[in-house]
Amino acid sequence: MEYVLLNNGVKMPLLGFGTWNLKGKECIDCVLTAIETGYRLIDTAQMYDNEREVGEAVSRSGTPRQQLFLTTKICFPQNSYAGAKTAIARSLEALRTEYIDLLLIHEPYREASDMYAAMFEAYQKGLVRALGVSNFNAAAFAGFCRSCPLIPAVNQVEAHIFFPQLSLQRQLSAEGTHMQAWSPLAAGRQQIFKNPILTGIGHKYGKSAAQVALRFLLQNGISAIPKSSRPQRMAENLDIFDFKLSKDDMASLAGLDTGRSLFGWY
Ligand SMILES: NC(=O)c1ccc[n+]([C@@H]2O[C@H](COP(=O)([O-])OP(=O)(O)OC[C@H]3O[C@@H](n4cnc5c(N)ncnc54)[C@H](OP(=O)(O)O)[C@@H]3O)[C@@H](O)[C@H]2O)c1
C-alpha cells in the first residue's frame, strides 16, 4: 500500500474500500475480506447506515486499530453545531473506536461552518485525526476555506475517468487539500469495464480496464475508494501499484473526460 501525507502530517492510504450500499452481514463479510486482502482504509458514512457493521468487522479482523484508517461522514439532519457533536459521539460508538481517522461533512450544507466548529473541537481533543469535506465544488470549497479554523485535509468528490475534475484537483492541491475520488469506477456506468481505450491501454500493461481507470486517478494526485462485494475484484482494484501509465497513455485517457457529472452533482 502507498500513502499520501495529509496537510497535518497524517498518513492516509492511497486506495481504500468503499462501503456504500453494503448492509448487514454482507457488509461485515465484505469489510473483513477487504482487510484480509490488504485494504487499510475503510470508507463509511452515517448516511450509509452501516457504521455498526464496519465497526464489527474491524474489531473481528484482529488487525491492530492503528494499522487501519477509518473515514466517516456526518450529514443532515445533524447539520448544526449541536447535531454534529451528537453525530461524532454516535459514530465513535457505532464504529467501536476511540478515534476517527478522517471525518467529513458529507455535503456543502449552509450550516457547514457550524458543523466544522464541532468537528474542530473533536479534532483538538484527539477524537478525530483529520478533518475534511465532501462534495464541495470549487466555489463552495473556496468560500468555506475563507472562514474555517483549519484548511480541510481532504475533499472527497465524484471523480473517475469520465469526470476526473482535474481543475478542482489543482485548486485543492494549491490549498494543500487532498482530493479523494468517490465512484472512481463510475459505479460501473458507461460500460466502463468494456471501454476500448481502457482495455486497449490495459492490454499493454497486463492490467484490466478497472486497474487503468484507478491508476489514471492516482497519477493525477487523486486517491480512490472503489467498492466491490467480490473478493477477486477487491484484489484486482488494489493491484495498481506495480505499473505506471506513460505520458501518451495519460493523454489518451484524459480524452475520455466529458466534463460532466454522471450523477447530477456539482
Ligand atoms: N461522499 C459521497 O457523497 C459518496 C458518494 C458515492 C460513493 N461514495 C463512496 O465511494 C465508494 C465507491 O463508489 P461506488 O460504490 O458508488 O462506485 P465504484 O466503486 O465506482 O463502483 C462500484 C461498482 O463497480 C463494480 N466493480 C468494482 N470493481 C470492479 C472490477 N474490478 N471489475 C468490474 N466491476 C467492478 C461493483 O460491483 P461488485 O460489487 O458486484 O463487484 C459495483 O457495482 C462508495 O462505496 C462510498 O464509500 C461517497
Gist of the model:
This protein is α/β, with parallel strands linked by helices. It contains 10 helices and 10 strands.
Could you describe the 3D structure shown?
The chain has one domain: Alpha-Beta Barrel (TIM Barrel). Helices cover 41% and strands 16% of the residues. It contains ten helices and ten strands. The strands form two sheets. It has an eight-stranded parallel β-sheet. The chain has a two-stranded antiparallel ribbon with strand order 1-2. Helix 3 crosses helix 4. The two termini are 31 Å apart.
Q: Which architecture does the CATH hierarchy give at level 2?
A: Alpha-Beta Barrel
Helix-residue proportion: 40-55%
Unreliable segments of 5+ consecutive residues: none
Radius of gyration: 18 Å
Query: Beta-strand level of the residues, as a percent range?
Result: 15-25%
Distance N terminus to C terminus? 31 Å
Given the helix and strand composition, which structural class is it? Answer: alpha/beta
Number of domains: 1
Bound molecules: NADP nicotinamide-adenine-dinucleotide phosphate
Number of strands: 10
Shape category: globular
Remind me, CATH topology?
TIM Barrel
- The average pLDDT is 97
The CATH homologous superfamily name equals: NADP-dependent oxidoreductase domain
Tell me the series of helices and strands, N- to C-terminal: EEEHEHEHEHEHEHEHHEHH
- The total count of helices amounts to 10
